[in-house]
Design the sequence.
């Protein structure tokens, strides 16, 4: 995580990793694929499926190898895929970072197995692994892809990382891998879906357009914990502060610092309205607010987010995430999480005053990430895949720091240094008005805030018939929504309805 990102955090790692480099020849010596017949069963419902781990060649237009993308697929068999029936959908799934493998969304979220969570408590070792009652395998075959430079995915010798570690290069690599998988598995007749989380939603937006241009029709796209406009992450940008306020409000209510005796959903909705009716006009006026008006607004904000009005006024009404995380529970000696602000941990020592260090200390991440990776590695051994000792579950220290944020916005004609990929979404949807988009977010997600997503889509001014193709889902969870088991259950129901819709 770089210094700029740590100040105003969006899709950034929970911990800055040590940079890991592996010789090119070792990275390309990948093991043979491995498969095993498995069974998912919850109650009386049963799905037989084949789990396969292996690599997809990512090749350029001339056939030159760009890299090998690691993939784990779950393909239903038997009664779930009867011979002669309509082809089952196939969904390509991934996390973000940039620099994250797909382990969280696989073994934490929608795969056939998941690590059982325990509310906002840190998981012990070994964690309990169960057949996932809300797995998306019930609706679709699943392919989990690791971005090049993460997991077991490797760049080919001679490939310049700058060509794939960026908004456009990354989406191009995924486009080629998806086409390669469809071709190798003869699934061109299957309905195709994308499921991206966090930075994976930026990838989704660009992929929607690229796949359409490659004549790959999409049936649907799921955006979980989305970020579309990178401008909101830049220092001093008022869109950042506007997006944070409803999340701060929800968190203050959760810890009993505001919103007493108000329903969770109603409190968040009121904070969304307050952001637009009171907070946004005040920020737009800057120092043109009189001292009396500034103090009045600070007192109103204090009642919403639970911090002292004096602190809010001193910060010119602009409370960043680090300030909120440090101060909300300061009287208890605790700091709150970033990916899920309901998590809390003991505050760092006073001498540990590094902004970058603090931004990476996240109780929400610490509670689950190691358990997910251990369960995934055990599963690979179970199906007979013998990978290298080092699996780069997170490679933020290399990939994220090297990321090229410039993006060729469709219809703009030049590379934009801070991309807004909603324009890709609009172009893709206008070209293919039969696809559907599900946008899912959490009230306690301070990494990709819900207000910003709603705002970004509203600024596309889509015609009514296209707006109807986009559905919004809001849950009482954080960034990794599936950590929260009530949310996981509701997401499962919502995804079932989404996949059934025409």
Sequence:
């Amino acid at each position: 995580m770089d210094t700029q990102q740590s100040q105003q955090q969006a899709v950034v790692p929970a911990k800055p990793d040590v940079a890991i480099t592996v010789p090119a020849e070792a990275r390309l010596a990948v093991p043979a694929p491995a498969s095993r017949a498995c069974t998912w069963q919850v109650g009386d419902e049963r799905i037989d499926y084949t789990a396969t781990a292996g690599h997809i060649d990512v090749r350029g237009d001339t056939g030159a190898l760009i890299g090998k993308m690691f993939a784990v697929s779950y393909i239903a068999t038997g009664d779930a895929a009867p011979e002669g029936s309509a082809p089952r959908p196939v969904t390509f799934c991934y996390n973000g970072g940039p620099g994250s493998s797909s382990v969280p969304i696989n073994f934490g979220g929608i795969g056939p197995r998941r690590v059982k969570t325990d509310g906002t408590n840190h998981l012990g070792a070994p964690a309990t692994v169960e057949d996932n009652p809300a797995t998306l395998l019930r609706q679709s075959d699943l392919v989990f892809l690791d971005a090049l430079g993460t997991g077991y995915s490797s760049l080919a010798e001679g490939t310049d990382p700058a060509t794939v570690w960026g908004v456009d290069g990354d989406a191009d690599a995924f486009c080629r891998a998806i086409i390669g998988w469809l071709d190798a598995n003869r699934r061109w007749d299957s309905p195709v879906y994308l499921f991206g989380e966090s930075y994976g939603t930026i990838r989704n937006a660009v992929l929607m357009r690229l796949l359409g241009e490659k004549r790959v029709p999409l049936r649907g796209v799921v955006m979980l914990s989305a970020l579309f406009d990178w401008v909101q992450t830049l220092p001093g940008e008022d869109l950042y502060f506007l997006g944070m306020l409803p999340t701060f409000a929800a968190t203050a209510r959760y810890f009993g610092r505001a919103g007493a005796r108000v329903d969770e959903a109603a409190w968040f909705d009121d904070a969304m309205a307050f952001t637009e009716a009171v907070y946004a006009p005040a920020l737009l006026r800057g120092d043109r607010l009189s001292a009396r008006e500034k103090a009045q607004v600070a007192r109103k904000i204090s009642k919403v987010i639970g911090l002292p009005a004096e602190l809010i006024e001193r910060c010119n009404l602009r409370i960043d995430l680090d300030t909120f995380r440090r101060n909300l529970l300061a009287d208890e000696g605790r700091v709150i999480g970033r990916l899920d602000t309901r998590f809390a941990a003991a505050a760092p020592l006073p001498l540990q005053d590094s902004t970058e260090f603090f931004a990476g200390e996240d109780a929400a991440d610490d509670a689950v990430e190691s358990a997910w990776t251990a369960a995934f590695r055990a599963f690979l051994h179970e199906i007979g895949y013998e990978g290298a000792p080092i699996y780069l579950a997170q490679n933020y220290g290399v990939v994220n720091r090297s990321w090229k944020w410039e993006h060729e916005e469709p219809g703009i004609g030049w590379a934009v240094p801070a991309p807004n990929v909603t324009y890709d979404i609009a172009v893709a949807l206008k070209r293919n008005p039969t696809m559907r988009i599900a946008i899912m977010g959490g009230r306690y997600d301070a990494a990709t805030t819900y207000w910003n997503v709603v705002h970004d889509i509203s600024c596309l001014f889509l015609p009514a018939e296209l707006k109807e193709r986009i559905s919004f889902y809001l849950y009482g969870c954080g960034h990794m929504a599936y950590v929260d088991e009530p949310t996981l259950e509701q997401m499962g129901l919502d995804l079932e309805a989404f996949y059934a819709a025409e």
